[in-house]
Write a structure and sequence with these properties.
The protein is an alpha/beta fold. It has helices at residues 8-18, 48-59, 83-89, 92-95, 107-124, 136-151, 164-175, 220-228, 330-367, 391-400, 409-412, 433-447; strands spanning 128-129, 155-158, 180-183, 202-208, 232-237, 256-260, 276-280, 291-297, 303-310, 372-374, 382-387, 407-408, 422-426.
């Protein structure tokens, strides 16, 4: 018998207080055809070996990016993770540690987060970074909320080169907090003039660099345009490796940066978990969400680490909280920090060059395929192809032949028929000449 602390009378009392007749009423918003009433297709019980075999068979239906040529990107990227990263994060004191609620007994975790913050601030080119966010998309939404607090304005403008998932996350956050969102049309060729959308009611302009479609741009003119209107510039970075070659957002006068750190130390893992990076200017410190770890001296003069800032609901009154984020991506942040430490400045620049060179070779080879056009003229390690046929069926056909050709834009923008022929292709230091040749050959065959 399972131990259930609530009696039928307890449940009835709670339902009455809430004002619903049954527990099933909580699921009224879920379509009837999407609900499961029974689990008849699951066995009642099985032995450990049988369960392992069944799950192995189930897992084998997936095709991991490591199984062959992969050109997947669109926000998550395949990079080499040094063996030292996994060896270190699997140490018990790291693997089982949780959020440092009691700083005095979590010095190792706090020290790691302090170093992580330093690395993130250096990479993003700003004075202050927090102790990580959940992921890049929720970090971008938190950045928009932060901009509204600082400017006391509610209008948020989203560039057409912003990742659709980030856009949707920001729109969801704004919908329930009184924000007004204006999303610009998809900026496939990097030709939008986002400055025209700004006015005296704008809290921030959210841009991505490199953009969702791959373009790299100078953000300084946009930053100046935003500041002229009293707004802030929020920069999103989905591919952190690009920071080894491209000027940091802080150098280009961004006020807040929200980034995805998955590229360092963290595998694709079918989409997560990942680690959100967040940095801003020191003058906005008090409005930054999440936590900030600081360095201090104890009573004996020894170096120690503390939670310098932790302005969330658990610590202060709800109305004064800057965020309700409950934790940080501690283990993923550690993996990020170890990988960045192993690379160093010179290693990061070399890694970024390898990525860009691989993408240049891929773009040149694919541009020669009949029925293929490389849309953008600037990119880091990801670019957009326009095919003479819809991209999604082509991707499926190539996947059946062992090549993950990239991400069809229609998968992320299903309601925009004009984008159906666009394919995002990413290359990295993992991409070989043979894989590029195989993609070009099989893409040419599929387009005939």
């Amino acid at each position: 018998m399972r131990y259930l602390s609530l009696t039928d009378q307890d449940r009835a009392a709670m339902l009455k207080a809430i004002g619903v007749p049954t527990v099933d009423a909580f699921y009224d918003g879920v379509p009837e055809q999407a609900r499961l009433t029974r689990l008849d297709d699951l066995p009642d019980h099985a032995g450990e070996l049988e369960v392992e075999r069944a799950l192995t068979r189930l897992a084998s239906r997936n095709r991991p990016a490591s199984a062959g040529p992969s050109f997947l990107g669109a926000g998550l990227y395949r990079h080499h993770v040094p063996a030292a990263v996994d060896a270190l994060i699997q140490r018990g004191e790291f693997l089982t540690a949780y959020t440092p609620y009691q700083p005095e007994i979590s010095q190792g975790t706090l020290h790691m987060l302090f170093e992580f913050q330093t690395q993130v601030a250096l990479l993003l080119g700003l004075e202050i970074a927090n102790a990580s966010m959940y992921d890049g998309a929720s970090a971008a939404a938190e950045a928009a909320l932060m901009a509204r607090r600082i400017t006391r304005r509610d209008r948020v403008v989203l560039s057409g080169a912003l990742h659709p998932h980030y856009r949707a996350t920001i729109e969801t956050y704004m919908r329930y907090s009184g924000g007004i969102v204006e999303s610009l049309a998809p900026d496939v060729r990097g030709a939008e003039n986002a400055a025209k959308a700004l006015d005296q009611k704008t809290a921030c302009l959210v841009v991505q660099n490199p953009g969702f479609y791959g373009q790299v741009r100078d953000l300084k003119p946009l930053a100046q345009a935003a500041h002229d209107k009293g707004a802030l510039l929020v920069c999103v970075v989905t591919e952190a490796v690009s920071l080894g070659l491209i000027a940091s957002p802080g150098e280009m006068d961004a006020d807040i940066v929200a980034a995805e750190g998955q590229s360092f130390g963290n595998a694709l893992s079918f989409g997560g978990p990942t680690v959100g990076l967040f940095a801003t200017r020191e003058k906005y410190l008090r409005q930054m969400p999440g936590r900030l770890c600081g360095e201090t001296l104890d009573a004996d003069g020894r170096r120690g680490y503390v939670l310098t800032l932790s302005a969330r609901e658990q610590h202060i009154r709800r109305e004064k909280a800057t965020s309700n984020i409950c934790t940080n991506s501690g283990l993923c942040a550690l993996a990020f920090s170890i990988h960045v430490s192993l690379l160093g400045e010179a290693g990061l620049k070399r890694l970024a060059r390898l990525n860009h060179e691989a993408a240049m070779r891929a773009a040149e080879r694919l541009a020669a395929v009949p029925g293929v056009e490389v849309v953008n003229d600037t990119f880091f390690n990801e670019f957009t192809l326009r095919l003479k046929k819809p991209a999604a069926p082509i991707v499926e056909a190539l996947a059946a032949r062992g090549v993950l050709a990239g991400v069809p834009v229609s998968r992320l923008e299903p309601r925009r028929a004009e984008l159906a022929d666009l394919l995002l292709v990413a290359a990295s230091e993992m991409t070989t000449e043979e894989e590029i040749a195989e993609l070009a050959e099989k893409l040419a065959e599929a387009l005939r």
